[in-house]
Amino acid sequence: MSSLGILFSAFVSIGYLLTNRMMFIKKKDPSTIYEREILLNEEQRKWYERVPKKEIQIDSMHGYPIQATVIQTIDAPRYVIFSHGVTETRLSSIQFAMLFEQFGYNAVIYDQRRHGTSGGKTTSFGYYEKVDLKAVVQYVEQWRGPEAEIGVHGVSMGAATALLYGGTYENTPISFIIADCPFSSFSEQLAHIASAETSPYWTEQALRVANLFLRWRDGYTLSEVSPIKVVDQIKVPILFIHTLKDTFILPHMSEDLYEAANEPKQLVLLPEGKHALGYRKNREAYRDAIADFLQHVKKD
């Protein structure tokens, strides 16, 4: 094989390797999530067993089903849609559904594309997920009518999804967004992972190759997964939450998003907990932050 052929083969191999790691990221075993959230958590298990639930299927505009659960505990048209993080399932949102019940909200928990029992071939870290979130919001709006109050709460990739949704679609019916440990830029996040893990995969040159193959294979580029670019287009109140000890998605990303967002907005930095553990490790402070935020946005 010629030198040119060897270089081309290496280029293609690197492109496929990098985009495979993103598009087909290894997910947690659903049984592990079920054990963590239900079997070994008596409080959540008892709550989830007693609350009225309705399993629904929502059609994604991309041609696959989005599986969701409506939890109706409040006799009012107030709902929070919970968008979970990468590798998780909707069961990881139960803790937040319980929390928001205290404030008079019902819950819609759903599986992101390629997660849980929802369809979808790839994970896109918010690019296609924001379109699915739009479908879930539209379902709630059409079901409960224009009087419904709808909020969105997202964690990690789910938080980025919520911000991308809010900053992309005009005239959205949602009343607020709560973004728990979002990344501001997926490219920057990948670069941080490379630095933290001294990974040979995510060098600057490798990211350029990944970008080319990502557009070819999955229809978007890394720059299109950047909440920081659209957060100033969001017209509803936003609460950013991040733990100071998060070393996976650094807290400065929420600070940067907060600075770029329009008023009304709030930023809460919590002292304890690694990535996506803000509520588990700071229950009282997290609850107080939600209560204060909702006091200003909740409709009578």
Question: What does this 3D model show about the protein?
Answer:
The chain is α/β, with parallel strands linked by helices and 300 residues long. The protein has helices spanning 3-23, 30-39, 42-50, 94-101, 129-144, 157-168, 186-197, 204-218, 227-230, 252-260, 278-281, 283-297, and strands at 53-59, 65-71, 78-83, 106-110, 149-155, 174-180, 238-243, 265-270. Strands 1-2-4-3-5-6-7-8 form an eight-stranded mixed β-sheet, sandwiched between helices. The longest helix is centred in the N-terminal third of the chain and has 21 residues, at 3-23. The model has no long low-confidence stretch (mean pLDDT 93).
Write the layout of secondary structure elements.
Blueprint: H1 3-23, H2 30-39, H3 42-50, E1 53-59, E2 65-71, E3 78-83, H4 94-101, E4 106-110, H5 129-144, E5 149-155, H6 157-168, E6 174-180, H7 186-197, H8 204-218, H9 227-230, E7 238-243, H10 252-260, E8 265-270, H11 278-281, H12 283-297
Parallel strand pairs: 3-4, 3-5, 5-6, 6-7, 7-8
Antiparallel strand pairs: 1-2, 2-4
Give the key terms.
globular; eight-stranded mixed β-sheet; 45% helix; Rossmann fold; 8 strands; alpha/beta; 12 helices; 300 residues
**What is the number of helices?**
12
Strand content: 15-25%
End-to-end CA span: 72 Å
Low-confidence stretches: none
Instruction: Tell me the structural class.
Output: alpha/beta
- Give the % helix: 40-55%
- Profile the largest sheet: 8 strands, mixed
Name given to the CATH homologous superfamily: Alpha/Beta hydrolase fold, catalytic domain
Q: How many β-strand runs?
A: 8
